[in-house]
Amino acid sequence: MTVAVEGGSDKTQRGAGPRPGPRPGPISRFRQSYNRNWYAWAMVAPVVAVIGALVLYPLARGIYLSLTDANSSNVGKTIGVNEIPDSFSWVGFDNYTEILSGGDHQFWPHFTWTIVWTVVCVALHYGIGMSLALLLNRKLRGRTFYRMVLILPWAVPTFVTVFAWRLILADDGGILNMALEWAHLPTPPWLSEPFWQRIAAITVNTWVGVPFMMVSLLGGLQSIPSEQYEAAEVDGATPWQRFRHVTLPGLRSVSSTVVLLGTIWTFNQFVVIFLLFGATGAPEAQILVTWAYRLGFGQDPRDYAGSAAYGVIILSMLIVFASFYRRWLARNEKAV
Fold this sequence. Notes:
- By secondary structure, the chain is mainly alpha-helical.
- The protein has a domain at 106-335: MetI-like (MetI-like fold), CATH 1.10.3720.10.
- The chain is 72% helix and 2% strand.
- It contains 15 helices and two strands.
- It has a two-stranded antiparallel sheet with strand order 1-2.
- Helix 3 (38-66) packs across helix 15 (304-335), helix 6 crosses helix 9 and helix 9 packs antiparallel against helix 13 (270-277).
- The radius of gyration is 30 Å and the shape is globular.
- It starts with a helix and ends with a helix.
- Pfam families: BPD_transp_1 (PF00528).
- It is a multi-pass membrane protein.
């Protein structure tokens, strides 16, 4: 009897084992992580501080202002020794409702033009960039010189490029119109009529953006093994078939990245529109980001709340687009 009891007691003790203690809370886990990786936190801290000061705070401030009726007449300011406090009011989502419902009569026309501008520019960037990359990937005399010349528009500062194009496209005395007049051809008003202003904006942005696309695609082309082309040629594939079944699949990862970056950059391409037409010129050629700037800094009184609401809407659209685009690419990759 005693042995059975001792055996049962011993068995019970062996089966029970030590009881797990309570799980540490988030503060304890953070403290443990900090103690183990304090040097990493020290390295990251300056970056976090800079991002917080230059990105997170302005973003939070912009979201807050978009929910008010703030403008240049009711925002607090300091004049000499006198401080005027803020007098704007909280209006909630009224600014978003007015913008998205078409109450300001500006958002949807500029949104439509921004979509057209982005699609046309990115398509031209990719198409011309791909053509030049295929040309420079071939063995031809003076290839290094051609590469240097074609990269120059990307190397030159954008403001210099745009001002040069303003001289070329000027309605009176512009180099292009003088050449067209000499050839007895019509001279379009590139910088004064809405249709030609949009054509001029697309032309300048294409000139600025093609070199980046060309260099990126050229790097992708050079990473494709030459054996694949040789095998396709032995199998009797035509140049188009080699391009379709070897080149395009080999550039899939590069193309997806550059198209996403090109779309985001073009959608927010402030510099070309602003420098080509000025802060208050060409209202029909303004894209969403330049129109938001015009609301906040190009009129009197300055509509800080409306400009901030435009900024939040633009950011939201780009986040949604990038999310759906990445999911679409992931599905295609899985299917392939």
